[in-house]
From TrEMBL:
Protein name, per record: Alpha-1,4 glucan phosphorylase
CDD domains in alphabetical order: GT35_Glycogen_Phosphorylase
PANTHER family per UniProt: GLYCOGEN PHOSPHORYLASE, MALTODEXTRIN PHOSPHORYLASE
Functional description taken from the UniProt entry: Phosphorylase is an important allosteric enzyme in carbohydrate metabolism. Enzymes from different sources differ in their regulatory mechanisms and in their natural substrates. However, all known phosphorylases share catalytic and structural properties. Allosteric enzyme that catalyzes the rate-limiting step in glycogen catabolism, the phosphorolytic cleavage of glycogen to produce glucose-1-phosphate, and plays a central role in maintaining cellular and organismal glucose homeostasis.
Organism: Salinivibrio kushneri
Length: 816
């Protein structure tokens, strides 16, 4: 706690406030349940953050400074209460206050449901970035959607994924959010474009036929020890047309509610796809609704602060998190052209100096395109503007490469090879002053493979900003024992200056420190094992290697490669009398998009293999496999501090960055990984001896493809691999149901193993053997683990944000 905050906190007043909130919720202290108390705690704390939010909003210095507007369809913020307590410097004081009320703070925090308003890395990155912006006091507003249902809740029925809706706010509402009706906006859809004549000029004007109200809900982003609270503004769709009371009274209930139904659907659900473009109309409606409301709010703030419209790029920058909010570019153009009546050149000069775009993926199936017909129907004026942007852009291309049809074809915003489609990524590059990839390798591939022509046309526009994670949530909050140990050694500044962790490296060879460090790891493993026992009734050996793969389920992430290794260990334990291995628990946690059949088959296969291995008495506690259901931020907070080994095994060139890799390394896990995404930079930081790199690199992948890859040949040449694969076809793991796991077998054999699992298998096994050997040398292992924690300071999202600030956004910190 900072001295200022310590002084400001009045324990007895806070306890009174909690009891008052409890009473307002309709409960009495002697009969209230834990959940009631949690809500009272959240509301009592939110009083403080709300007043800081309002004060920050009205701060003249901030109004006169440049801000970043982070536009993202996803913010996977996780539970806020514990994290906000850390940021406010009140964790211990509140623990003390609630204990005087007879409550345990950790029990209260467990009552909070995760706001799962994101799918995976992209949404979690947005949350880390907001945390780092507030901590470093770079003026910022996050803009997202207020989904009624977050990412589905996952359970398993006989091994198969089941999905249930996640009504994260129900039934009492979320204590941290604040509705701001005074800032609501009206958003149009459909309709037609009219030509208006005024003072000898003709203008175009969109007349939408459907209007929906955008109601903002603010969540407080509390800066770590900074007294700065920025809003994460989430738009909710609401019916605008007044409730049809006449129809209701006349008995026409459905019609009376129709407008509510349409508007309410708009932000009802988060699309559960990660790295995949599903192309649904409602999704485009969500994107436009989000973009239009955000652009309107940005302009409102800008003009209310007294700035000229033409000065927008000097005061506001708009970061597009992936292509999902691309439609904000033509929307700003529409407003400038049609509402403010600027000429094209002036409007374009403003817009193209305001937007910047982050690319998160090279996967073709994730690069969004929308059919021209759909955009023209839903947003007719925007389609005209997109055509005009492209027309002028094509002239630029012609000037640079005269008569080069091929260049125009790849660069064009419109893909007219079949049904005409709008390429959102191309529109982003054309309309942004900066484009960035999310790790060094990824940014290089964006330039080399995805956008080489754009890179030639606009040298310097495509940059790199390596992703990062907030050390407040991902070390200080989730791993209090390790945090305390670090603070004892190097002081309390590291959560705000993560580079300082480097000083821990000097203790890597100190046997006493090694013991304390590994004791902390052991306690975290016990905590996770306790959770597994309580929820899944599996008993774990906490001396075993905790080998962890936690991320979305996707073929390119290769959970099935991990599974093949697990099966091979199982078979060796059974079949090779001399085979010895350090005990291992292999953890998986992953959600599959509901429509992604193969991903669901992989989950099913892992669960079936786990069931067999865990119940086979011949294995004892040498090997256990645990699939933790319903992976979410709060679960990650328990798993990550307990990990010994971090699985980052995507096929090289496919994982743009990864951020779980950073979180686990920071908590002292050793990475087994390919030369992909941020693994490459983690290796640079921790050194070759403290990471297990295996498999083909990007060049190796393309060479193999050129030579002609034959998974069958690999299958026949490697007995261990063949045996593991064959077991997927018989009844080993699915008694009475031979072939139930065949889809996984076929995915690496029949359809040609698109992600080269078989090609990398042997080297993956080799790397795991190295891990097995090294883990048995406790002191050497401790040394490596300590060095991982010590040497990954670069991956603080504070550093990522400073890179954005210095190289792209050009903001000044405003200290409060
Ligand atoms: O974004 C991802 C993640 N799946 O959400 N992508 N998208 N889209 C990438 O696949 C990750 O590699 C990356 O770390 C993350 C955040 O940039």
């Amino acid at each position: 706690m900072t001295p200022k905050q310590q002084h400001a906190f009045d324990k007895s007043a806070f306890k009174i406030s909690m009891v008052q909130h409890l009473t307002q919720l309709g409960h009495a202290p002697d009969t209230a349940q834990l959940r009631d108390w949690y809500l009272a705690l959240g509301r009592a704390l939110a009083e403080h953050t709300t007043s800081d939010l309002v004060a920050t909003e009205h701060d003249q210095a901030i109004k006169q400074a440049k801000s970043v507007n982070y536009l993202s369809l996803e913010f996977l913020i996780g539970r806020l209460t514990g994290n906000n307590l850390i940021s406010m410097g009140l964790y211990d004081a509140i623990a003390d206050a609630v204990s005087e009320l007879g409550l345990g703070l950790t029990d209260l925090l467990e009552q909070e449901r995760d706001p799962s308003l994101g799918n995976g890395g992209l949404g979690r990155l947005a949350a880390c970035f907001m945390d780092s912006l507030a901590a470093q006091q770079y003026p910022a507003v996050g803009y997202g959607l207020h989904y009624e249902y977050g990412l589905f809740r996952q359970s398993f029925h006989e091994g198969a994924q089941q999905e249930a809706p996640d009504a994260w706010r129900e039934p009492e509402g979320y204590p941290w959010e604040l509705v701001r009706p005074e800032l609501s906006q009206i958003i149009g859809f459909y309709g037609h474009v009219e030509v208006v004549e005024e003072a000898g000029h003709t203008y175009r004007q969109w007349v939408p036929s459907l209007k929906i109200q955008a109601m903002p809900w603010d969540l407080p982003i509390v800066g770590y020890q900074s007294n700065t609270v920025y809003p994460l503004r989430l738009w909710e769709g609401r019916a605008l047309t007044p409730f049809a009371l006449d129809a209701f009274n006349a008995g026409d209930y459905t019609h009376a509610q129709q407008a509510d139904i349409d508007a309410g659907n708009l932000t009802k659900v988060l699309y559960p796809n990660d790295n995949h473009d599903a192309g649904k109309t409602l999704r485009l409606m969500q994107q436009y609704f989000h973009s239009a409301a955000s652009v309107a709010d940005i302009l409102r703030r800008h003009l209310e602060a007294g700035h000229a419209l033409a000065a927008l790029p000097e005061y506001e920058t708009i970061q597009l998190n992936d292509t999902h909010p691309t439609i904000a570019i033509p929307e700003l153009m529409r407003v400038l052209l049609d509402d403010y009546r600027l000429g094209w050149d002036e409007a374009w000069s403003i817009a193209s100096r305001t937007f910047a775009y982050t690319n998160h993926t090279l996967l073709p199936e994730a690069l969004e395109t929308w059919s021209e017909a759909l955009i023209a129907r839903l947003l007719p004026r925007h389609m005209e503007i997109i055509f005009e942007i492209n027309h002028r852009f094509m002239q630029e291309v012609e000037a640079k490469w005269p008569d080069d049809v091929a260049k125009k074809q790849v660069l064009s915003v419109i893909d007219d090879k079949g049904e005409r489609m709008v390429r959102m990524a191309n529109l982003c590059v054309v309309g942004s002053y900066a484009v960035n990839g999310v790790a060094a390798l990824h940014s290089q591939l964006v330039k080399r493979d995805l956008f080489p022509e754009f890179d030639a046309l606009y040298p310097g526009r495509i940059q790199n900003v390596t992703n990062g994670i907030t050390p407040r949530r991902w070390l200080k909050f989730c791993n209090p024992d390790l945090s305390n140990l670090i603070s004892e050694k190097i002081g309390e500044q590291w959560p705000a200056q993560l580079e300082q962790l480097e000083q821990i490296a000097q203790y890597a060879d100190d046997t006493a420190f090694q013991k304390i460090f590994m004791d902390v790891k052991k306690r975290n493993k016990q905590r996770l094992a306790g959770w597994v026992k309580e929820h899944l009734d599996i008993t774990l050996n906490t001396d075993a290697i905790f080998d962890v793969q936690i991320k979305r389920l996707h073929e390119y992430k290769r959970q099935h490669l991990n599974l093949l290794h697990v099966i091979s260990l199982y078979q060796r334990l059974l079949n090779e009398p001399d085979f010895d291995m350090a005990p291992r628990v292999v953890f998986f946690a992953a959600k599959a998009a509901p429509g992604y059949e193969l991903a669901k088959s992989i989950i099913y296969a892992i669960n079936k293999v786990a069931e067999t291995i865990n119940n086979d008495p011949r294995v004892g506690d040498k090997l256990k496999v645990v699939f933790i259901p319903d992976y979410r931020v709060s679960m990650a907070e328990i798993i990550i501090p307990a990990a010994d080994v971090s699985e980052q095994i995507s096929m090289a060139g496919k994982e743009a960055s990864g951020t779980g890799n950073m979180k686990m390394a920071l908590n002292g896990a050793l990475t087994i990984g390919t030369m992909d995404g941020a693994n490459v930079e983690i290796r640079e930081e921790v050194g070759d001896d403290n990471i297990y790199i295996f498999g083909l690199d990007v060049d190796g992948v393309s060479e193999l493809r050129q030579k002609g890859y034959q998974p069958e040949a690999v299958y026949h040449s490697q007995p261990l691999l063949k045996a593991a694969l064959d077991s997927l076809l018989d009844e080993t793991f699915t008694p009475g149901q031979p072939g139930a796991l065949r889809p996984v077998f076929d995915s690496v054999m029949g359809s040609g193993d698109p992600y080269l699992c078989l090609a990398d298998f042997a080297d993956y096994v080799r790397a795991h053997n190295d891990i097995d050997r090294d883990y048995r040398d406790a002191s050497q292992w401790a040394r490596k683990a300590i060095l991982n924690t010590a040497l990954v300071g670069k991956f603080s999202s504070d550093r990522s944000i400073r890179d954005y600030v210095n190289n792209i956004w050009q903001l000044e910190a405003i200290k409060r």
